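Sharing a chain and its predicted structure for anyone who wants a worked example. Both blocks are below, sequence first, tokens second.
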Amino acid sequence: MNGTLLFASNKLDKYEHIICYLKQHGFVNIITVLNGEDALKHLNTQPPLFAFLDTELPILDGFQVCKLMKSSLLANCNNVPVILVTDSQKNCMISLLANCVGAYLSIHPSFALEDLLYLLQNKPESTPANITANRIKILIAASEQSFTQMLETYLLGEGYDVIIAGNGQDAIHQLKNEKLSIMFLDDHLPESDVSEIIRKSKESIHEIFITIIVTQGSELRAIELMKAGANDYIIKPADEKTIPTAFADTLIKYHLNLCNHRMDVEELKLLSLIDGIVDGIVFMDMYGKINTVNKAANAILSQLNLVRNSDGSIIRINTIDIKDIYRTLFEEKQLSVSYEITINDDFEKHFNVIASSVNQFIDENIHVIGDRRKRKRLARSFIGNNIGIVIVLRDVTREHQLTNQVVQSERLFAVSNLVAGAAHELNNPLAGIQLCTELVLNDPATSEKSLKYLQRIQKETEQIQDVVKSLLTFTGNYTLSKEQININEIIEVIIKQKIYQFDHANIKIIILPGDVLPFVFVDKYQIRRVLLNIIENACAAMEVSAYDKCLTIKTEAQNNVVKTYISDTGPGIPKENLSKIFEPFYTNRANKKKKGTGLGLSIAHSIIKQHNGKIYVQSEVGKGTTFVIELPAMESL
């Protein structure tokens, strides 16, 4: 938060909870001084947003410093609000004197810190009435009237709001109707279950601080009640001399308990926030041990290969050596280091790994801590101390897929333009060659030897034309002629056509047609071409197979989709090649004597896509391959 606060007191330990609270809520720049003279030096240099002045400052007290701030001597501080701080309100003249010297407000530790924070954040023009009204409320639920009266008198004199409850029912009633901060609860409260009051108190007000009042010799009972939820205990009999000490101790513990509770809440919020991040977050200490890991990181780490030491610390994540990360970050002083991990499981996955160092710095205003030895110890322990690394794990598989799709689309676009132009240029001379060949073939004067060569020319020309048609199909430069058909009919025609080839190659055929298969609306010649290409590929794969050769074709209807499975018992396709088989010009034929163009499956993919369907492959090396074709049923069109 913008703006500086000046806090002047020679009893900073007493007000340390206020300073820490303000720092935690945005006021990080708080200057502290120990006497009035040093306060004037800072005020002369730079006017703060607010000035907190102890009424009992040495050299110049808070009243005197405030009076000087409102004078012409410190004209630049005339508009700075002054809050006079006192640890006692027994002197009723303090608030009157504060008004006389132009102070904005006088406060006492009995005031609620939330109200003070609201005041600083909003900085109203006039003194707010609520900060003097909303003081810390204390409930005294005790049976002994003399003790209750003695404690009440002391607390009222110190400026606290005090509520008295004579029995347990009254105490619970006050819990429901008042915003209580501290409760003094007598163990011998009449007609009351003290443990039940403690439980209901904690349920009603989570941050309430409960001090049990027990008689001397009842320490075991006090421990039992603290196990039930009480925070502290005091022993009777007490007198006017021991009560201030006992209550001062209670107040310190109350603020400590409040800070711890709120820190727990903030830590829970932080952990929930970290758990909600879609990227994996891992915090590792200086020895490679994982301290914090969120859900996303657990999911990603389960897919990676972690090498651990005997003590559980991480040595390596896949190919990343953890020592290399620490050396780069702490010895070479790099802000961060990043890696990429690629794994091949069921399909290829990519992960980014980004590591950065975590240093623990104590606030520059460490001098707020009053204990000199404690201050030096903290400074030595924490300033610039490396405490570990944060590793961010990000699944970038989708980004890689999109990048590959863009590259593939650009490649296909370029190839399509090239092929379309080449096909046009080839078709014209091919038509001329065919025409001339037919004319010579029909000439009676042509010799038999010439006829043989001409027929060879005609056959080769037709093959070239078939290749040109395939290229045009691949580029999408064709018009579908769709009709209603049962996919089993196309398969039946292909099997009849290829039956002699299957017998010659000793391939066993198993046909499993689906019952009551819905119609599909397709170009039957193009779909026949797809099925024929996959079946021929399967036969070619099994020619070199050492296993029994079996081709299985199965059809079924599932969720408004007609599925066709074509399985072979060939050698299978390696995992690293599965993602490439539909790419143009890629071929991986097991029989090297029968080389293909590498366009068959690309064309099949293009045709199925034109029909709003899907084609994919399932394969395992040594166990064969299955192609699956999905086409929308007529009902879903």
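Comments welcome. The longest helix spans residues 397-441.
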